[in-house]
C-alpha cells in the first residue's frame, strides 16, 4: 500500500463528553451574575482556609442553600460572617465571593440582589427583594388562600373577611395624637384627604382592620419634611412609606394638595403594557426616583399635584392592583416599624368613611 499513512487521531473515536465538569444550573446563574463558580462547602464550619491572611475578606458573598435557595449578603469580614450563618443553617452547600471596597458594599449588594432576583434565584433575603420565600408572621393573620382572594377582589374580600372590631390602643397613644387629629379635621384639605385615605385602605391594604397597627400604620400631620413638603398623613408598611398626601408649602391652607403612591412596577407594567402606555393614560402623573430596601427592584413612585389626579389613580383597577401587590409583598416580609406613630383616630375615621365599602 502506498501513500501517506493517516494520523492516528483521525482514526480514533471522539472521547465521550465528560458531564462531570458541567456545573449545576444554580451555579451557572451565580457565574452569570459575576460571581466566581461557587465552591462546595458542605457542612464545613468555617471558610478560613479559602482566605488565609492575604486575601481581602471584605465584599459580597453568595450562599447556595438546600432546596435550590440562595442568599446574597455583604461582609467586612466574610469568614466571620460565614461562621455566623452556620449557626443558623445546618447546611450551606456552596459559597462564592466578590471582593468589594467597603464604601461600595451597600450599592453593590443592592445591585446583585436585584440582578439575582431578575435571574430567577430563589433568594432568602428580606431586604432589596420583592418577595420572600417561605411562611411569615403575616400568614398567621391573613392566610395564603385569603391573600389570593384579596388580590383578585380587594374590596369584597375586605368586606367579607376583615374583623368588624375596632382597634383598642393604650390611652396614652390615643391622647398623644388627639390634638393632631383635631388639627387635621380643621384643615381645608382634611375631608378630602380622609376620603382618599379610606379609598386607599379599602383597595390596597389587605384586611385593614385585622392588620392595622402591626402591619400598617398611618401618621397624622407628621413632622417629616414639614418645612418644604408638609404632610397631612403618611401610610407606612414595613420600613417604607406607601401613600402620602399634603398641602403645597407655599400655600398650605388653599384647596390644592400633592401626593405620592408607591406601587409594584412589574404589576403596573403588566396591566398597562408599558410605562409609556401608563403615561398616556395618566399624562400629569410623574415618577419620583425613590428607593426602599423593602420594595426590592420592582418599584414606581407615582406623584400627583392635585386631589383629582390622586383620586383618578386610586380609582384605576391597574393602579389599585399594583399598589396592593406592593403592600402585600412588604407585609409578608415584616411588621411595620412605625406603630408608635399610628393615629387610630384617623385610621378609624377613614375606614368608616370608605375603607370597607
Structure, described:
By secondary structure, the protein is an alpha+beta fold. It folds into 2 domains: 19-125, no CATH class; 144-355, no CATH class. 39% of the residues lie in helices and 16% in strands. The protein has 15 helices and 11 strands. It has helices at residues 8-11, 25-32, 78-86, 105-118, 144-152, 154-161, 171-176, 178-186, 190-204, 208-211, 265-272, 275-281, 307-315, 317-333, 344-355; strands at 39-40, 59-65, 69-75, 94-99, 122-123, 216-220, 233-237, 240-247, 257-263, 286-288, 300-304. Strands 6-7-8-9-11-10 form a 6-stranded antiparallel beta sheet. A 5-stranded mixed beta sheet has the order 1-4-2-3-5, with helices on one face. Strand 2 (59-65) and strand 3 form a beta hairpin. Helix 9 (190-204) runs parallel beside helix 13 (307-315). It starts with 7 loop residues before the first helix and ends with a helix. The model is unreliable at 1-13 (pLDDT under 50).
- The total beta strand count reads 11
Low-confidence residue ranges: 1-13
Q: Give the strand line-up of the largest sheet.
A: 6-7-8-9-11-10
Strand content: 15-25%
Mind summarizing the main beta sheet? 6 strands, antiparallel
Shape type? elongated
Query: How many distinct domains?
Result: 2
Mean pLDDT: 89
The SSE order reads HHEEEHEHEHHHHHHEEEEHHEEHHH
- Rg is 26 Å
First-to-last CA distance: 98 Å
Multimeric organization: single chain
What is the helix tally?
Answer: 15
Helix content: 25-40%
The secondary-structure class comes to alpha+beta
Amino acid at each position: 500500500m502506498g501513500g501517506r499513512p493517516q494520523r492516528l487521531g483521525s482514526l480514533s473515536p471522539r472521547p465521550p463528553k465528560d458531564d462531570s465538569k458541567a456545573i449545576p444550573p444554580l451555579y451557572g446563574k451565580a457565574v452569570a451574575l459575576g460571581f466566581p463558580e461557587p465552591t462546595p462547602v458542605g457542612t464545613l464550619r468555617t471558610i478560613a482556609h479559602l482566605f488565609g491572611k492575604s486575601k481581602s475578606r471584605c465584599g459580597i458573598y453568595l450562599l447556595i442553600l438546600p432546596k435550590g435557595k440562595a442568599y446574597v449578603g455583604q461582609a467586612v469580614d466574610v469568614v466571620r460572617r460565614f461562621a455566623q450563618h452556620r449557626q443558623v443553617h445546618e447546611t450551606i452547600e456552596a459559597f462564592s465571593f466578590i471582593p468589594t471596597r467597603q464604601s461600595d458594599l451597600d450599592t453593590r449588594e443592592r445591585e446583585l440582589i436585584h440582578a439575582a432576583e431578575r435571574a430567577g434565584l430563589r433568594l432568602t433575603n428580606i431586604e432589596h427583594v420583592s418577595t420572600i420565600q417561605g411562611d411569615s408572621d403575616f400568614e398567621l393573620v391573613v392566610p395564603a388562600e385569603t391573600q389570593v382572594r384579596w388580590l383578585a377582589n380587594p374590596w369584597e374580600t375586605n368586606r367579607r373577611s376583615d374583623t368588624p372590631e375596632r382597634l383598642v390602643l393604650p390611652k396614652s397613644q390615643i391622647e398623644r395624637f388627639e390634638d393632631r387629629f383635631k388639627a387635621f379635621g380643621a384643615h381645608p384639605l382634611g375631608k378630602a384627604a380622609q376620603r382618599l385615605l379610606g379609598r386607599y385602605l379599602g383597595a390596597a391594604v389587605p384586611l385593614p382592620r385585622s392588620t392595622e397597627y402591626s402591619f400598617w400604620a398611618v401618621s397624622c400631620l407628621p413632622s417629616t419634611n414639614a418645612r418644604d413638603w408638609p404632610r397631612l398623613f403618611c401610610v407606612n408598611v414595613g420600613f417604607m412609606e406607601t401613600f402620602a398626601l399634603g398641602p403645597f408649602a407655599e400655600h398650605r391652607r388653599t384647596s390644592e394638595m400633592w401626593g405620592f403612591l408607591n406601587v409594584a412596577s412589574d404589576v403596573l407594567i403588566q396591566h398597562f403594557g408599558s410605562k409609556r402606555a401608563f403615561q398616556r393614560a395618566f399624562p400629569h402623573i410623574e415618577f419620583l426616583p425613590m428607593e426602599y430596601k423593602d420594595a426590592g427592584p420592582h418599584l414606581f413612585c407615582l406623584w400627583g399635584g392635585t386631589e383629582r389626579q390622586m383620586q383618578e389613580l386610586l380609582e384605576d383597577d391597574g393602579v389599585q392592583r399594583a399598589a396592593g401587590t406592593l403592600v402585600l409583598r412588604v407585609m409578608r416580609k415584616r411588621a411595620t416599624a412605625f406603630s408608635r406613630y399610628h393615629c387610630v383616630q384617623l385610621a378609624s375615621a377613614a375606614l368608616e368613611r370608605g375603607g370597607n365599602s
